[in-house]
Amino acid sequence: MKVAVVGATGMVGQVMLKVLAERNFEITELSPVASERSVGNKINFKDKEYEIIGLEEAVAQKPDIALFSAGGETSLEWAPKFAEAGTTVIDNSSAWRMHPDKKLVVPEINASELTKEDKIIANPNCSTIQMVMALAPLHEKYGITRVVVSTYQSITGTGVKAVQQLENEYKGEQGEMAYPYPIHRNAIPQCDVFEENGYTKEEMKLTNETKKILKDDTVEVTATAIRIPVVGGHSESVNVTFKNDFDINEVRKLLKEFPGVTVQDNTDVNTYPMPIYAEGKDDVFVGRLRRDLSQPNSLNMWIVADNLRKGAATNAVQIAEYLVENDLV
Ligand SMILES: NC(=O)c1ccc[n+]([C@@H]2O[C@H](COP(=O)([O-])OP(=O)(O)OC[C@H]3O[C@@H](n4cnc5c(N)ncnc54)[C@H](OP(=O)(O)O)[C@@H]3O)[C@@H](O)[C@H]2O)c1
Asked: Pick from 105, 220, 213, 204: which is nearest to 151 by CA?
């Protein structure tokens, strides 16, 4: 495969390269792509040095697959140009996720929807991916009617600028701000910008993308997304109401059996998911499983995953692997 990584110098792009190397994705030619600012700079991949190129040059190379993580505007403008050149684009931005003709894919849930005709494939939002990984097996068994989710999101979800902001604040130095407020020793109840309905874009992504991935518009999702000064991954407190009642041991079993989910749930020895353990791992970790005592057919759980891996890079590489394995590219 000739592979382009668009946004190769960014937070997600760097993990993308790492995941491609770790999983030994077969690459005959690699094109690391970034903005004009970075063109000519060097990066390392599998002990070899590569020069960063620009988008124009990358399209001309007609890669088989382009993994995009360079922001929505770049995707909107450039993904169609790559697609026209015959490249299959797997896009990490929000640009194409809710487009009615584009697939929104979490491989463990809906990769089977993919066909050779899909030239722009959307990778869901990081906080949505980890939530639907735990919801999907439970929805199939009990039928979800409503989800109430509060997120505690890592600053790595905002990109390199945010990590720099926290480091500056930690050292007491002035610098560029990725957030409207200090993030060190703070919790900011705003991830992304506000929409007219009072929710942030991130919160509406959790609502809309969940319905699309589960292929069920009747699943109601209400979300509050919070940024906290953590780096290892996003955490989510999730309250789910089902049509049918459940057995908590069966819930645990369904989650354990679902590929890509690890249950960490033993309160006797204080075992539960945390970002410090999820960091650098590909799985989605679920724990604090307990019946909601305040209303029928309802479950509480705590979900943690590394947003840069399963929430972005790993999910995208898994899509690429599926395309190759099934001769769709
Ligand atoms: N961070 C996450 O957890 C996460 C999860 C899922 C999806 N995403 C999405 O992934 C994308 C990147 O996020 P990130 O956190 O990696 O951001 P980031 O650290 O700020 O990196 C942005 C990358 O895009 C490149 N870029 C920016 N403008 C460009 C342009 N006009 N042409 C070509 N390349 C350009 C940058 O290149 P330079 O270095 O040259 O500026 C850099 O490589 C965003 O769309 C984000 O929403 C992020």
From this structure: 204
